[in-house]
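REQUEST FORM: STRUCTURE PREDICTION
Request ID: SP-0412
Submitted by: Lab K.M.
Chain count: 1
Length (residues): 373
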Amino acid sequence: MAVFPFRIDARDGAARTGVMETPRGEIRTPAFMPVGTAGTVKALTVDQVRQAQADIILGNTYHLMLRPTAERVARLGGLHRFMRWDGPILTDSGGFQVMSLSKISKVKEEAVTFQSHIDGSRHVLSPERSIEIQADLLGSDIVMQLDECVAWPADEARAAEGMRLSARWAKRSKAAFGSRERQALFGIQQGSVYEPLRRESAERLIEIGFDGYAIGGLAVGEGHEAMCEVLDYAPGMLPDERPRYLMGVGKPMDIVEAVARGVDMFDCVLPTRSGRHGQAWTWDGPINLKNASFAEDESPLDAASASPASSAYSKAYLHHLVRANEILGQVLLSWHNVAFFESLMAELRSAIAGGRLAAFHKSFAERQRRRGA
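STATUS: Completed
RESULT:
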């Protein structure tokens, strides 16, 4: 019996909408998790994140273990108290950042050794240490197994090696996690773009048994079409009755395509990263507020939005803030983008519940395509 009940309320093709119940609140699915890399969703207060209608946020094991250190967060009452967020938190395992950000990383059966990108200090991250950091020190609600995210491109032999190591680490992660009443553990499917490897990975994870299942190793450079081809089969390999989480995705069109294929949860740095660089995501695609065409545009980004960042400020004002490099511009655009992503999820939930997903999918794709999104 999984620790967090997951109720599927409606289906439309492969898509589902429902609720995952956690001790810190409900997570409405499909769900988008704003990324709080270093204990903050960049440029936003937790009140702004709540106002944007996020049910859950993501914390980053790699960054928090290096600064301020997981032990310090634990001494200060855990991550929820530290950052003043009382809703659910999912933490990633740290594996992806170790592979992609560290100056030197060495993967062995026992653990990954790496150098900090901050000061060059040496660290060791094993499946057991990752679980200790996430579950015991940070106190996250949803804990991810440590996995090896193989860099793209990868041939089948290299993808198989990484997938099988991840499967062995999944077993060790489960043993270290044990049985807990208020925290869940997710396993991560790997296998790159190779269907037989994805199937083997799913079978190994199901044999171990997890509270939820993630699809890893995508959005690493393979491109939209290749990602969609994997998503045509990968979600269906995972248990229907448990949440399915596509890690690190992504652009709004990627999310819509993945939801249509049966994915329930998403995370990405895109909303806040775009906001810090003057880009706003809208129902008609992304727009660049640096462009002179907005200099005297008195319309807001989205007059119908409940978010003040979207409806209360003119594009002309946002253009001025961005061009003047004012911090408020980064705050408002990040806030708007997070609110837009959460609104997209609400529209997807509504479309699935009403049996309208195909029509929504077609309309959204056409509007996004006009701007090349």
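NOTES: The first helix runs from residue 46 to 51.
Reviewed by: T.R.
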